[in-house]
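seq/struct pair 1
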Amino acid sequence: MSVTTDAPPAPAALDLDAEHLFTVEELRWRDRVREFTAHHIAPVADADFEDRHFRLELVRGLGELGVLGMHLKGYGCADAGAVSYGLACMELEAGDSAWRTFVSVQGSLAMSAIAKWGSQEQRQRWLPGMAAGRTIGCFALTEPDGGSDPAGMRTVARRDGGDWVLNGAKRWIGLGSVADVAVVWAATDEGVRGFLVPTDTPGFVARDITNKLSLRASIQCDLFFEDCRIPADAALPGVIGLRGPFSCLNEARYGIVWGVLGAARECLRVAVERSTTRTVFGKPLAGFQLTQHKLADIAVEYQKGLLLALHIGRLKEDGRLAPAQISVGKLNNVREALDIARSVRTLLGGDGVTSDFPVMRHMANLESVRTYEGTDEVHSLVIGQALTGHRAFS
């Protein structure tokens, strides 16, 4: 559906002239990922959502594009800046949240864990293949009884001679059934530790969660460990305690701050396009005051979210980004992206619930994004603790 020649400016013109806030290199990353998304993701996004289909064949292409672990240095990684990574996340999620989720799980979670806390041998073994898309990783922290309290995890690892033996279960683990290696966090006598578990290890079982009404083009799994024996050198040597997984979660949350703006921008684009081409009561829908009021609110919230993401990105590049600041971005931008999708759905009327438009798909996906990597409630408490100095998690 195209905008008529006398229509108002497209949403791209409503970004507060933001292009001037980015470097040439950052815009180059954005444009490359935008082109990839336009050619490989957007044309099949609705069908893949409907069919619960994850296109494994795109993984190598993302590796060639350089976005897998793109914020990391060495081992075939791009060593890109935080804002470049954010823009890449935004373009991928404009196509479908499943693909920004894939890049987050592979790069911000699994690869970051190995890069931050792994031995030199572990990095050399896994990271080059993961950066190229030849090897897929997953990150196993969340458990069936609740994801917001990892300190209460029941998955355990015990020493047995020179080996470790894992027992327990994890839930909502992205890529679990297609991964080659799982970064598994387990309770030990020493505290919480991370382990690199090849997924062909006896005792490792992954089962797809197939009844999802959200992120349907993404693979999410239950993982089970039954006397899963791994060698001593499978343990990540660089960290003991929840600081390990939390440092990786902060990387993923940062990507979400940007990613959801892609879904919001796509909804805004559809809203302007549809309202200027649909005629009701003898004039374009865009000619009504209530329509313009909704569009104005949507555009303002999108612009605010973009400026917030950029500010957080610059703080990250300067080494001054605090976890509570990431929580501000995740809480605000996901919440506003969902509100934008819901508001646009109303502008589309009954057609808004069909796959003629991507809005309901984005809305459904954003419900998952709102939950993973910290719920609204968790991020509110992180911010509250930063404001008051009092911890209110329990």
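seq/struct pair 2
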Amino acid sequence: MTTYDCDVLVVGGGIVGLSTAYALTRAAPGTRVVVLEKENGPARHQTGRNSGVIHSGIYYRPGSLKARFAVRGAAEMVKFCAEYGLPHEVTGKLIVATGRAELPRLHALVQRGRENGIPVRELGPAQIAEYEPEVRGVGAIHVGTTGVCDFGAVAAQLARLAADAGASVRYGAQVRAIGRRGAAVAVRTARGEVLRGRALVNCAGLHSDRVARLAGDNPGMRIIPFRGEYFELAADRAELVRGLVYPVPDPAFPFLGVHLTRGIDGGVHVGPNAVPALAREGYGWGVVRPGELARTVAFPGTWRIARRHWRYGAGEVRRSLSKGAFTEAVRRLLPEVRAEDLIPAPSGVRAQAVLRDGTLVDDFLFAESPRMVHVLNAPSPAATASLPIGREVARRVLAGLS
């Protein structure tokens, strides 16, 4: 007879993994859950290294998981933060067209927002100044349901709630091996500990495809890491921005472009750009892991992305290597900003799923196999959508256990 250490093993202690653990304890009280996180605390990567924006859901294709979960998740995230006294603010945001050529895309966003049930207000140049006096544009839309919070604090609260309900959250527990034996899933950690569960959930973010392969599953995609580099406005220039200001995004890419974000601490983050990272946790050009880089370069999808989007990529790299070029991009929205106003801030890395044909996966992506659920693509707006994502993953894993 198989002896189980728990019912569900969750690999990954970012906001999605911890939301899943929380959802499991809520949906099926008494379910024994163990979360294994390789770092010494929660939210050390994508969750804790973003701009802290609670996204409205306006950008995402109607009917997609991103659209449904972001709209629902934004409202739930505000309620969750209020309930547990976590810092947050519903600020609203502007999406600004800086040239007439961007107006058709701006109008398409208005339509998309309405299809997703999001209230939007169209603005002319004079009305832009009512919200953001220093921002310039030929047109804009105001999205009132956007806000900011501290997603690291949210993740820590989810960990506490899951633990209070009986889950075990273990830090410094990197998973090195996964095996199926009979009705059990077993994992071995870097410390040599072996744990057996009835099911496993893979919420490993930047390493989700590798964890799927460790489990013997073919994820059908590869995580390609893109580093997002940020600056912040000098304290004496932070008054240039009142809230959140975004450019009109290019629909061919999953990135939103360089934007301006006044966070819960009152500071204004500027960025990010998006450049290929030379390691999955490559938070600077100097962080290179040859093995990871070699596997990224050997993946056919990498070269197909490069061929298809080399002009866009070259512009991003130029802005990464030249502060002047980055400043120029910011000045399209905020003409008063100067290079000396921009102070380097910590960067983040986006875990972007890419198919072999070079397609950038543009929705959340889940995969299932016997006794396993893999979360294979959960970049932004996953933090915003983390509560409904956790419930969805919990529903899938519990269905497999029934």
